[in-house]
C-alpha cells in the first residue's frame, strides 16, 4: 500500500493537469508587485522590525550578476563580462546598500542564513570575496551555527577558492551541472567535465562544507532518456546531499540567450516526461527523499528533517529550513521579504547605482500583503512544503469560516479530488501521492490573483 508521503508518477494525470503556473517562491508572485511600493515603504517596514520582529533572525541574499560566459538556457538576470572593474564597483555599491538598509533596520542584526546567488558568485576574485564578507561582518552578526551558502560554477573554481570560501564561513554549496552529456553541454554552451565537478565537490568535503546541492535541468536540447540515465549514474556517484531537478522552459521571446537554442533539438513533451519519470525512480531508489516541486534530499539532510518535523518553508531560494527569518536582499533585481512586505530592487546596474547615488534604497517595486494575501500565503506554503493543510489551524489563525471563505476554491478542488490528486475530509486537505508532482496546480486554486486573471502564459509549465 502506498503511503501518503510516497510519490506516484502518473503520466496521464500529468498531461491532464500540467498547466502553466507560478513556482510560488512568494505569494503574491513577483509579477503582482507594484511600483507604488517604493524605497520609503521598505525603509518604514525595516524600522518596524523593532516592534514586531525585534528578535527575529535575518536571512541575507546577495545577487552577484556577473558571468564569464553565457549558458544558452539561462533565464537569470546576469551580465556577461570578464572585466573585474565592473565587479569591484558593484561590491562598493553593495556596501552602500547594506549601510542604507541597516540604518533603517530595527531589531536584531543576527543572521542565521546567507546566500550568494547569481549570475556566478565565484566570478569574484579571492580579494573580492574577502571584501564582500568584510562588508557583511561590518553590518551584521553571523551566528556560529548558521547556513551560509554559495552557487558555484565548477569550471572556474579550484581547491584554493573552495578553501577560501570555507575560511570565510561559507558552509553550503550549490553546484551547477544541468547535464553531463557532452552534446547537450555543447548545445547549451555549458561544457563542464565530470572531473571538474568531482574536484570541486571533493574540495568542499575536504574543507568541511556541511551540505552540497546539485542543479540538473531536464528538457534541454539533445537530451534523451538514455543519455540522462548516464548523467544520473554520474550524479549518484558524486552523491550530493540535495538535488534540484528543474524543468527547462523554452521562452526565447523573454530570454534572449535561449534564441541560440535550436528548437528542433528539444525533446518532445513525451520524452521529457520519460526523463522525469526515470529521474524520480532512480533518485528515490537511491534513497533520496522527494521534498516537493523539483527537490530531492538525503534523509538526514536538513531539508528532509525539516519536512518531517513540519518546519519546511519556501522562499525566493526555493525550499528553506528558516521559516521565521526576515530576508534582506542586496544587489540588482534581488527580492526582500520583511514582515508582511516584499520589495524588489532595480534590475539594471544603471538604475541600481543611480538610486544609491541619491542615497536611496534601490527599490523598483514591491507589495504590502493584505490579510487575504497573508491567509492565502499560509495555505500555499503548507501545500507546497508539507502536502497537507489543517483547515482548523487556518480558521483559528485567521478567524475565518474556511468552507464559507473558500467555497469557490473547494468546488474547484473537486475535479482534482475525483482524479485522485487531493483528498478533502475531516478538517484536512491532503495532496495524495499522485498529486505531489502537480502540487503547483493545487496551490494555484487558492491564488486570488489567478482567479481574477486567468491569463497564465507568463508562467512555466508545472512539469
Descriptive overview:
By secondary structure, the chain is an alpha/beta fold. Helices cover 40% and strands 21% of the residues. It has 17 helices and 19 strands. The strands form five sheets. Strands 9-10-8-7-6-5-4-1-13 form a nine-stranded mixed beta sheet, with helices on both faces. It has a three-stranded antiparallel beta sheet with strand order 14-15-16. The protein has a three-stranded antiparallel beta sheet with strand order 17-19-18. Strand 9 and strand 10 form a beta hairpin. Helix 3 (84-104) runs parallel beside helix 4 (126-139), helix 5 (159-167) runs parallel beside helix 7 (194-206) and helix 8 runs parallel beside helix 9 (269-285). The chain is globular, with a radius of gyration of 22 Å. Mean pLDDT is 92; it is low at 1-5.
List keywords for this structure.
463 residues, alpha/beta, 9-stranded mixed β-sheet, 3-stranded antiparallel β-sheet, 40% helix, disordered N terminus
Describe the SSE topology.
Blueprint (H helix, E strand, L loop, with lengths): L10 H7 L21 H14 L5 E7 L1 E2 L11 E2 L3 H21 L5 E9 L7 H14 L1 E12 L6 H9 L4 E7 L3 H7 L5 H13 L4 E8 L6 H14 L3 E6 L21 H17 L3 E4 L2 E3 L4 H7 L4 E3 L2 E3 L5 E5 L4 E4 L2 E5 L3 H9 L5 E6 L2 H16 L1 E3 H8 L3 H4 L1 H13 L2 E4 L2 E4 L7 H6 L3 H5 L11
Parallel strand pairs: 1-4, 1-13, 2-3, 4-5, 5-6, 6-7, 7-8
Antiparallel strand pairs: 8-10, 9-10, 11-12, 14-15, 15-16, 17-19, 18-19
Helix pairs in contact: 3-4, 5-7, 8-9
Shape, please? Answer: globular
Task: Order the strands across the largest sheet as they lie in space.
Answer: 9-10-8-7-6-5-4-1-13
Helix content: 25-40%
Count of DSSP-assigned helices: 17
Q: What number is the mean pLDDT?
A: 92
Helical/strand content category: alpha/beta
Report how far the terminal alpha carbons are from each other: 26 Å
Major sheet details: 9 strands, mixed
Strand residue percentage: 15-25%
Report the count of strand segments. Answer: 19
Low-pLDDT runs of 5+ residues are: 1-5
Amino acid at each position: 500500500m502506498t503511503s501518503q508521503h510516497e510519490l506516484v508518477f502518473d503520466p496521464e494525470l500529468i498531461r491532464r493537469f500540467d498547466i502553466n503556473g507560478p513556482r510560488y517562491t512568494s505569494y503574491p508572485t513577483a509579477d503582482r508587485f507594484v511600483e507604488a511600493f517604493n524605497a520609503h515603504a521598505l525603509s518604514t517596514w525595516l524600522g518596524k522590525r523593532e516592534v514586531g520582529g525585534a528578535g527575529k533572525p535575518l536571512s541575507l541574499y546577495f545577487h552577484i550578476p556577473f558571468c564569464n560566459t553565457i549558458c544558452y538556457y539561462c533565464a537569470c538576470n546576469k551580465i556577461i563580462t570578464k572585466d573585474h572593474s565592473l565587479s569591484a564597483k558593484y561590491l562598493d555599491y553593495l556596501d552602500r546598500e547594506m549601510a542604507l538598509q541597516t540604518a533603517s533596520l530595527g531589531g536584531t542584526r543576527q543572521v542565521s542564513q546567507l546566500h550568494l546567488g547569481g549570475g556566478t558568485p565565484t566570478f569574484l576574485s579571492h580579494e573580492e570575496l574577502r571584501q564582500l564578507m568584510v562588508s557583511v561582518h561590518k553590518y551584521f552578526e553571523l551566528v556560529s551555527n548558521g547556513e551560509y551558502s554559495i552557487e558555484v560554477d565548477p569550471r572556474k573554481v579550484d581547491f584554493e577558492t573552495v578553501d577560501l570560501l570555507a575560511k570565510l564561513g561559507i558552509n553550503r554549496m550549490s553546484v551547477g551541472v544541468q547535464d553531463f552529456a557532452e552534446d547537450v553541454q555543447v548545445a547549451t554552451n555549458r561544457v563542464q567535465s565530470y572531473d571538474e565537478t568531482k574536484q570541486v565537490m571533493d574540495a568542499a568535503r575536504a574543507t568541511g562544507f556541511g551540505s552540497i546541492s546539485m542543479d540538473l535541468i531536464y528538457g534541454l536540447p539533445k537530451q534523451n532518456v538514455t543519455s540522462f540515465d548516464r548523467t544520473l549514474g554520474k550524479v549518484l556517484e558524486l552523491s550530493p546531499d540535495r538535488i534540484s531537478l528543474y524543468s527547462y522552459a523554452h521562452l526565447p521571446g523573454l530570454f534572449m540567450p535561449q534564441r541560440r537554442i535550436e528548437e528542433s533539438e528539444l525533446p518532445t513533451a513525451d520524452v521529457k516526461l520519460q526523463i522525469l519519470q526515470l529521474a524520480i525512480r532512480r533518485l528515490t531508489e537511491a534513497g533520496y527523499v522527494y521534498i516537493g516541486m523539483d527537490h530531492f534530499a538525503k534523509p538526514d539532510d536538513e531539508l528532509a528533517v525539516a519536512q518531517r518535523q513540519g518546519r519546511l518553508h519556501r522562499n525566493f531560494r526555493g525550499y528553506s529550513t528558516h521559516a521565521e527569518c526576515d530576508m534582506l536582499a542586496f544587489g540588482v533585481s534581488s527580492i526582500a521579504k520583511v514582515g508582511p512586505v516584499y520589495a524588489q530592487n532595480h534590475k539594471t546596474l544603471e538604475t541600481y547605482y543611480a538610486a544609491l547615488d541619491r542615497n536611496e534604497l534601490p527599490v523598483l517595486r514591491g507589495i504590502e500583503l493584505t490579510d487575504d494575501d497573508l491567509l492565502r500565503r499560509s495555505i500555499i506554503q503548507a501545500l507546497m512544503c508539507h502536502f497537507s493543510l489543517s483547515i482548523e489551524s487556518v480558521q483559528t489563525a485567521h478567524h475565518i469560516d474556511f468552507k464559507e471563505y473558500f467555497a469557490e476554491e473547494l468546488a474547484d478542488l473537486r475535479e482534482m479530488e475525483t482524479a485522485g490528486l487531493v483528498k478533502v475530509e475531516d478538517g484536512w486537505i491532503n495532496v495524495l501521492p499522485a498529486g505531489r508532482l502537480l502540487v503547483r496546480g493545487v496551490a494555484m486554486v487558492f491564488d486570488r490573483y489567478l482567479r481574477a486573471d486567468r491569463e497564465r502564459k507568463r508562467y512555466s509549465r508545472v512539469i
